[in-house]
């Protein structure tokens, strides 16, 4: 069979693509999201209770909905930069990886190398053991795998912003995703990603990313933020977090019957 094409990579054509964080760690919840019209889903291995098997279950759950037109594409976020974990996630068939906390071009280069087979990198060969090769039925997987991989690195610190131009220029990096919560927290504006200093850093990162010919993404659960970022030119925007959506709906539902129920506010600035 042919190497499966990567619907996320193919969708990055300058039209804003709207996604949702998938934080429940189950195929069942993520499949529900996949039916709702989001262009992409972030299976979060950094902060959600995910393991390699739970990510696999979610990739399998999304697969029927990841076919054009109207495809819903999976993006998998790792917990760290560990090449062994990256190898496992690629082997189970993740084609788009988002790596948190990338501060330098050197880190970005190592991450690219972790996704490439020798001589272009050091990814180990799983061959017929892996879903990525559809158990060795994909033609010439070793030669072509990288063509359908999409590497998204997160810039979410002052150092990352300072180095964003070099990170974006790194060959093999397809996109930069700004993490506004970590960025604002790290520069002394916890809970206020809309502080003018943070907004200037976000805009700078967007501009240098586009100047390098790469795509830029961001998390913006508040509608006004998402609309502003779309207007600025962000290519992919996470406009919801499933766990928050459930909680908000639950809080609003019970408040209709018990109006005195306290309504907690977000401490994250959205
Ligand atoms: O810094 C950010 O913003 C992100 O990277 C997203 C957060 O990790 C997200 O989990 C906040 O809910």
From TrEMBL:
Please give the organism: Salinicola socius
Q: Which GO terms describe its molecular function?
A: aldehyde-lyase activity; metal ion binding
Classify the source by domain of life. Bacteria
- Name the InterPro entries on file: Aldolase/citrate-lyase_domain, HpcH-HpaI_aldolase, Pyrv/PenolPyrv_kinase-like_dom, Pyrv_kinase-like_dom_sf
SUPFAM superfamilies associated with the record? Phosphoenolpyruvate/pyruvate domain (SSF51621)
Give every HpcH/HpaI aldolase/citrate lyase domain span: 17-248
**What are the UniProt keywords, alphabetically?**
Lyase, Metal-binding
Q: What is this protein called?
A: 2-dehydro-3-deoxyglucarate aldolase
- Extract the Pfam families matched here: HpcH_HpaI (PF03328)
Q: Which reaction does it catalyse?
A: D-glyceraldehyde + pyruvate = 2-dehydro-3-deoxy-L-galactonate
A GO cellular component entry from the record: cytoplasm
């Amino acid at each position: 069979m042919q190497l499966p094409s990567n619907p996320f990579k193919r969708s990055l054509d300058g039209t804003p693509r709207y996604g949702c964080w998938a934080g429940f760690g189950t195929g069942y919840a993520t499949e529900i999201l996949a039916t709702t019209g989001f262009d992409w889903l972030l299976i979060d291995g950094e902060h959600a209770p995910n393991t390699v098997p739970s990510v696999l279950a979610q990739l399998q759950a999304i697969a029927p909905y990841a076919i054009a037109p109207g495809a819903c594409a999976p993006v998998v976020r790792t917990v760290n930069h560990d090449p062994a974990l990256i190898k496992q996630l690629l082997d189970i068939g993740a084609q788009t990886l988002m790596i948190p906390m990338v501060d330098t071009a050197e880190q970005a280069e190592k991450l690219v190398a972790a996704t490439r087979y020798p001589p272009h990198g050091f990814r180990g060969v799983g061959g017929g053991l892996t879903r990525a090769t559809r158990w060795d039925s994909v033609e010439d997987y070793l030669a072509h795998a990288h063509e359908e991989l999409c590497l998204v690195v997160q810039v979410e610190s002052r150092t990352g912003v300072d180095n964003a131009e070099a990170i974006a220029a790194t060959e093999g990096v397809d996109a930069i995703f700004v993490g506004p919560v970590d960025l604002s927290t790290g520069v002394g504006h916890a809970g206020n990603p809309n502080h003018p200093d943070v907004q200037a850093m976000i805009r700078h990162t967007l501009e240098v990313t586009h100047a390098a010919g790469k795509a830029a993404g961001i998390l913006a659960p508040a509608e006004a933020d998402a609309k502003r970022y779309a207007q600025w030119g962000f290519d992919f925007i996470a406009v919801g977090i499933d766990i928050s959506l459930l909680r908000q709906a639950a809080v609003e539902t019970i408040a209709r019957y018990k109006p005195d129920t306290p309504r907690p506010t977000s401490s994250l600035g959205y």
